[in-house]
Amino acid sequence: MKSALILRHLAFEDLGTFAPVLRDAGYQLQDIEAAVDPLPDPLEPDLVVVLGGPIGVNDGAAFPCMTEERDWLTMRLAADRPTLGICLGAQLMAAALGARVALLAQKEIGFAPLTLTAPGRVGPLVHLADIPVLHWHGEGFALPAGTERLAGTPACETQGFARGRNILGLQFHPEAGMLPDFERWLIGHSAELAQAGIAPEALRQDAKVHGPALRAAGQAMFRHWLRELEP
Questions:
Q1: What does the alpha-carbon distance between residue 37 and residue 124 come to, in Å, rounded to a whole number?
Q2: Residue 231 pLDDT > 90, yes or no?
Q3: pLDDT band at 137 (very low <50, low <70, confident <90, very high)
Q4: Regarding the domain delimited by 2-227, which CATH topology (the fold level of the hierarchy) does it fall under?
Q5: What's the rounded Cα separation, in Å, for the pair 224 and 160?
Q6: Which whole number is the average pLDDT over 183-188?
Q7: Is the peptide bond prior to 180 cis by the omega test (within 30 degrees of 0)?
Q8: Residue ranges of the domains in the chain?
Q9: Average pLDDT for residues 89-94, to the nearest whole number?
Q10: How far apart are CA 13 and CA 187, in angstroms?
Q11: Percent with pLDDT over 90 in the chain
Q12: Once rounded to an integer, what is the mean pLDDT over residues 165-190?
């Protein structure tokens, strides 16, 4: 079986709806916890997925795992090994490619559609056209050199980038937003929601409305990307 290494920063921010897609595609999943489990040889896994979390790329002094993961990804990306980053994972990939990661003017939390670029409309993200996806971040990244911008929103200009077929970074969450699992997000991030003045009930209702379509579109996007990976 092909190996897929899943790097997780929070227990409840997991692969979500992407897990069955990977298993159906013949991947054996290995979960590792940031700052707890040792990182393997960066070139060894057939696929790496780096998930989200509440800390930031620039927090290396307080959380040394951020620097360790960035440097680990630098080696993997230099070898063009298949890698997907989601939210914090995409920010780590952008930093590994030399791009700046910084605070946005305001946090972007909630369901909203993407504006796809021309490259975004002809690649895997085409499945997400007009689909409200889940956003949950307070930082964003500049477009790394040598990559294509795939999507944006009014609050965050670069919501996704790709370098060839094997490297994909997504600022948003196409893997999350389905109830009842989404309740773990609402509970786990309750302090952040309160600070931002966002009612959990509003997000819960949006998840009821948009979750099923996001599940189908997100899984279609992920399948598309996996099919086109280059050895």
A1: 31
A2: no
A3: very high
A4: Rossmann fold (3.40.50)
A5: 16
A6: 97
A7: yes
A8: 2-227
A9: 98
A10: 12
A11: 99
A12: 97
Share of the chain above pLDDT 70, in %: 100
- The letter for the amino acid at 145 is A
Amino acid at 75: M
Residue 104 and residue 139: Cα distance in Å, rounded?
Answer: 5
SS3 of the chain: helix, strand, coil, percent, to 5: 35, 30, 35
| pLDDT confidence tier of residue 63, bands split at 50, 70 and 90 | very high
3-state secondary structure the chain: CEEEEEEECCCCCCCCCHHHHHHHCCEEEEEEECCCCCCCCCCCCCEEEECCCCCCCCCCCCCCHHHHHHHHHHHHHHCCCCEEEECHHHHHHHHHCCCCEEEEEEEEEEEECCEECHHHHCCHHHHHCCCCEEEEEEEEECCCCCCEEEEEECCEEEEEEEECCCEEEECCECCCCCCCCHHHHHHHCHHHHHHHCCCHHHHHHHHHHHHHHHHHHHHHHHHHHHHCCCC
